Amino acid sequence: MKFEYQKIVFIRDFDKEFEFLTQSIRKMHLPLGFSDFILYAISELFANIKEHAQVNKGLITLQIKNKKCYLKIEDEGIGLKKSYLKKGIFAKDDFSAIEFALSGLSTKSPQERGFGLYSVKKLTNSIKGTLIITTGTAKAIIQKNKINFKTISPFKGTIIEINTPIKKLDFYKLIT
User: Fold this and answer.
1) How many C-alpha atoms does 61 have within 13 Å on its Cβ side?
2) What is the pTM of this model?
């Protein structure tokens, strides 16, 4: 089984592209729950770009081969810290903004939870994968429920990378 995809996708085409990816991934007959996980991750990350990045496009890379899956979704938007600041939530730096996002703090309203990155992290950890978030001057590598932060050269936008083995998971049990 092999699938390789890389494309710049305009926000107006996210739904159409998601439908294409859904059909392509479903045809692969991946282990139970895995296709649900990867499609959920793509859906959540597309939604984050639409709602928060303030850009009109994103770049998606998806590789499924040799029992491994690599997903990378990136934008050149305002980044996590500025997204929080625009909603009146003070993140002292990019590291704090990443921690806010991973904990489920929403930029929609202080009373709401943002389950996108929180759930993606939880699902990625459940199958022993790695989640990497790059934004501003921060890079977070999340593996085995541990976060390793690194300072990087300033970067415009946000990159989310998921590297996982392809294996069965109880998606609906884990997502609740």
Assistant:
1) 9
2) 0.91
d(CA 116, CA 40): 9
Residue with token string 């859906």: 43
Longest Cα–Cα distance in the chain:
46
DSSP, collapsed to helix, strand or coil, labels residue 28 as coil
Residue 141 CA to residue 18 CA, distance in Å, equals: 26
Question: Which residue bears the tokens 């704090």?
Answer: 96
Q: How far apart are CA 34 and CA 83, in angstroms?
A: 30
CATH architecture of the domain covering 2-168: 2-Layer Sandwich (3.30)
pLDDT in tens, 15-68: 999 999 999 999 998 998 999 999 999 999 998 898 888 899 999 999 999 999
Give whichever of 94-103, 130-139, 163-172 has the largest mean pLDDT.
130-139
